[in-house]
Amino acid sequence: MPSEPVLIRPAVGQFPAQHLLPSGREIGIDVGLKVFLITAEGEAVENPRHYRKAEKALQKAQRRVSRRKKGSTRRKKAVALLAKKHQTVKRQRTDFHHKTALQLVRQYDTIYLEDLQVANLSRRPKAKPDGNGGYLPNGARAKAALNKSIQDAGWSSFRTILEGKAAYAGRRIVAVPPAYTSQECSSCGERVEKSLSVRTHVCPSCGLILDRDENSARNIQWAGQALQGAAARATVLN
Question: Sign of the CA dihedral 94, 158, 106, 215?
Fold first, then answer.
């Protein structure tokens, strides 16, 4: 039996209502790293990678701090400069999140997204003992790079901002379980197993060839609509 959709509703008294006029449109979105997000209609928002672009300058500023004598005026200035650079990256990311969320809220009455547990996605891989007192390769270096990119994208912060703007505007955000959204074919439902490195969905059953993330966005939209339909039927029966 399908689970209830996670529907984000405006909190009473949280902010004054300034509802937008209904657009009559709804959309599924899939967040990622290749692009920041893509919709079920194939519209993509590029990933600005603010931290990645500033990484060399941040590393240089960090080295400057390390070279300065602790407690010195020069170290305090270096620390302040490093903090300022990090703050700039944070502000750029937040501004991007606000603008992207506002665009979505203006266009769509209902937005479907995955109920991602980002903290679980960015966990460090477990050590693999080799049985001789050492450890086997566990992909920790590659995972660290992936985690850095996930943090740079800021999916959790974006969702929080999107939910806030949607509540303010009288829109709905529906979060659906993320299981198999990237594996199942959005056309026929066939489950097509693929690793993260495979960026194109090719269905051997119905022949659909589609960008992997756009296929996911379509599945997210279908799943959200199905959950809402089931919830509506349950309400009528009760």
Answer: positive
